[in-house]
Design brief:
Layout lengths: L5 H12 L5 E4 L1 E3 L4 E3 L8 H10 L5 E4 L13 H16 L2
Parallel strand pairs: 1-4
Antiparallel strand pairs: 2-3
């Protein structure tokens, strides 16, 4: 089953391959600017991803990919964007 909605792709992939996953990379993308954006600020359904990680007993590595992003166009520094993404992940996973 192909998923056309970018917001559902990560969850569909994680659910299908859950027993094989030992590394999760968090990344978000802004369609309006065609740039990566701080995690939580655009397409991905992170509540569903967090729920799967917490209920699925995931114990592997987590990575936040925070490269050139739409947040910089709003006057935020790379460090501000990275901290915002980190804080969002911490709140979502309760760590």
């Amino acid at each position: 089953m192909e998923v056309d909605n970018p917001a559902d792709r990560a969850l569909t992939f994680l659910s299908k391959h859950w027993d094989q996953i030992d590394f999760v990379e968090f990344k978000d993308w802004c369609e309006a600017t065609d740039l990566d954006t701080p995690v939580s600020e655009d397409l991905c359904d992170y509540d569903a991803v967090f729920d799967l990680i917490k209920t699925g007993g995931y114990e592997g590595w987590l990575l936040i990919e925070q490269n050139g992003n739409a947040g910089l166009q709003e006057g935020r520094t790379p460090l501000d964007c990275a901290r915002g993404s980190r804080d969002f992940i911490r709140r979502g996973l309760g760590v």
